């Protein structure tokens, strides 16, 4: 009985946490698309990489290059008609080389002279270091592409940390709005495990069956506003636990749900018989 109760509680919690994480992921992707967070992060990374925060010098020339942004012909950042969410590193390297040489002769020696004329000392030192390590234009292009790729990986790490914070805030807001108290949910499922018994599989989307199963769980407000006290502090702790669980992501919780459902369907192992059965000998 204990094992069955534990499985039912695990199924109910996994289903709830997975559904909340799926809702938060959907909201997060919608916000990222509306506010163009990836494109803005990429542009900010290029401005930092080329030390051009005003978008008036080398970053402007590279970002509006046709290989980087085919529809980006603009003198000011606010005038940009389109912002790409991804830039091929080799295309960035070509655009940077074209912007430095300003359509001059495409020779390795001419490139070295163009690098010496870069006004920004930070970018100049970086380009000089890459130039000394390269033997020709192709190798220099690959080095610049690797430099850009490493810089974008650092920006990607910062973007993911920011997205984790947004995910936590969204899940906390959702937990408060719907009163998804993990502590209360655990208590109720432990006392009434049959609430989660009808959940038979890991849903892949928020269809009607998923919503119906989620509504069967003890979620929602019974009285509002809540009374301040020890019970309210415990309720706040439950909201925080719910918000933290969404950081694992919906695939993690739905995988846990599927494993728990499979364990419930397997059942207990039949007991082995202690009696010795006679062995029939073949007839001669």
From TrEMBL:
Keyword Membrane: yes
Keywords: Membrane, Transmembrane, Transmembrane helix
Transmembrane segments: 6-27, 164-186, 232-254
Superkingdom to which the source organism belongs: Bacteria
Protein name (record): Uncharacterized protein
Record organism: Massilia terrae
